[in-house]
């Protein structure tokens, strides 16, 4: 049995991901993360296909360290989440990341306005 066969089967893609609304006051961290072009590129790669950090780094031609930095920040604002684990040919666990939400809306009027 190969390591690839030991990996859990791919999770079915949820085409109807949650949509999220946040207020302007609560969006500071989100906007700060999205100000980075690299973070937006990471989102674009993951949107096309759930990927490991090394696959994202290869696709974007950036360092693995840069990708893991942006993945951590994107997870902190709940835009990306690990969805499953795959094993490398060397037997190492690799998280596969996907979008946490389909869209985020920032309500400029805020609650009660």
UniProtKB/TrEMBL annotation:
Residues 14-23 have a biased composition (Basic and acidic residues). One of its GO terms (molecular function) is DNA-binding transcription factor activity. CDD domains: HTH_ARSR. It holds the Pfam family HTH_20. Residues 29-102 form the HTH arsR-type domain. Residues 1-28 are annotated as: Disordered. InterPro entries: ArsR-like_HTH, HTH_ArsR_DNA-bd_dom, WH-like_DNA-bd_sf, WH_DNA-bd_sf. This is Helix-turn-helix domain-containing protein.
């Amino acid at each position: 049995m190969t390591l690839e066969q030991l990996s859990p089967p791919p999770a079915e893609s949820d085409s109807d991901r949650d949509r999220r609304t946040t207020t302007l006051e609560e969006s500071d961290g989100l906007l700060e993360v999205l100000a980075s072009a690299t973070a937006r590129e990471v989102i674009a790669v993951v949107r096309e296909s759930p990927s490991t950090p090394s696959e994202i780094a290869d696709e974007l031609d950036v360092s693995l360290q840069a990708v893991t930095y942006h993945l951590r920040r994107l997870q902190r604002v709940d835009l990306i989440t690990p969805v499953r684990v795959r094993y490398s040919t060397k037997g190492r666990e690799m998280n596969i990341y996907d979008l946490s939400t389909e869209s985020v809306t920032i309500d400029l009027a805020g609650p009660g306005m």
